[in-house]
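User: Just a sanity check before I run the rest of the batch. Below are the structure tokens for the first item. I only need the designed sequence back.
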């Protein structure tokens, strides 16, 4: 059994080192503004890495001093609530994952927020390839082998999650139902503690962003069962998609991150924020850093983010309804 405390410390150190700005070379911002970029997940995860990469570029460009503030809990909802209640002056922003705006409205019986009216989009900042992962010592090496192992050993098919109601969770529940496998979701307060338990064999499989998994994967602590989507990732060319392994439930299980502001934020302020984030997302240093970390960077404006929310919600609505998925909280 791996030492959980030491493994968590390793994970956080590796992930943080990968995304911290180079303070010795960063240009001091011309602006004296201080912007809080609130992340609803723990430090060391995928959302945190994206937030810090953008914060570095916004500061280097002289837009503002940007402080990344981690508020983990309730699958990102605690951080959302902080920004919802903030002054609508463009100085408190939320970096959130697409499930909060696409899937949660379909899967939760009651939400503590209104995804369409409490915040408004600023920009879509990164696409997030996702994957299924397991501990490197586990006897199975792909999703088909995992299903076979769980059935033969009658082991509990536990699914570690940092976000309840993610596309990966929906796809896995659908996969389990179609293969006679009961999947038991286990919710964590962030990707880091979840992946530590996956590496240590406490849960048999985890689902999250590829970027969150790379530090432990590169250290040989975890291995991929497969990636979501229809094509293999440039950063993981030897890892097959779950689709090519015969699991079509994961075609649309990728995610993305957007930046949002309080709903009452004036249009002129949103326009300036949008311009700043789009410019930051095109800087080679940011693109190279995030692509190396497993992200796809194709920043889009506020209207594009709003349209994508509508399209994806329409895709998942009939699937959620047919599966009868409903979370109390």
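Assistant: Here's the designed sequence for the first item:
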């Amino acid at each position: 059994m791996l030492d959980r405390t030491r493994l968590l410390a390793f994970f956080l150190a590796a992930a943080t080192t990968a995304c911290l700005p180079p303070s010795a070379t960063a240009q001091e911002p011309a602006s004296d503004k201080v912007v809080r970029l609130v992340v609803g997940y723990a430090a060391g995860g995928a959302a945190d890495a994206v937030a810090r990469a953008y914060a570095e570029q916004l500061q280097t460009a002289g837009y503002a001093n940007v402080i990344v503030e981690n508020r983990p809990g309730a699958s990102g909802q605690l951080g959302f609530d902080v920004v919802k209640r903030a002054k609508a002056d463009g100085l408190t922003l939320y970096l959130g994952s697409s499930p909060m705006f696409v899937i949660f409205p379909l899967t939760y019986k009651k939400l503590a927020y209104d995804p369409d009216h409490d915040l408004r989009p600023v920009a879509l900042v990164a696409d997030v390839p996702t994957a299924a992962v397991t501990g490197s010592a586990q006897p199975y090496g792909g999703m088909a082998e995992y299903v076979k192992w769980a059935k033969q050993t009658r082991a509990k098919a536990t699914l570690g999650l940092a976000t309840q109601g993610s596309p990966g969770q929906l796809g896995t529940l659908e996969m389990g139902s179609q293969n006679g496998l009961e999947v038991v979701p286990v919710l964590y307060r962030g990707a880091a503690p979840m992946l530590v338990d996956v590496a240590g064999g406490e849960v048999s499989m985890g689902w999250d962003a590829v970027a969150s998994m790379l530090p432990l994967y590169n250290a040989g602590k975890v291995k991929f069962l497969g990636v979501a989507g229809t094509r293999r990732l440039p950063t993981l060319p030897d890892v097959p998609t779950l689709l090519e392994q015969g699991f079509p439930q994961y075609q649309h299980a990728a995610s993305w991150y957007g930046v949002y502001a309080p709903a009452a934020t004036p249009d002129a302020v949103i326009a300036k924020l949008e311009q700043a984030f789009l410019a930051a997302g095109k800087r080679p240093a940011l693109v190279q850093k995030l692509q190396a970390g497993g992200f796809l960077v194709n920043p889009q404006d506020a209207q594009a983010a709003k349209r994508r929310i509508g399209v994806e919600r329409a895709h998942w609505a009939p699937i959620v309804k047919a599966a009868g998925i409903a979370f109390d909280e």
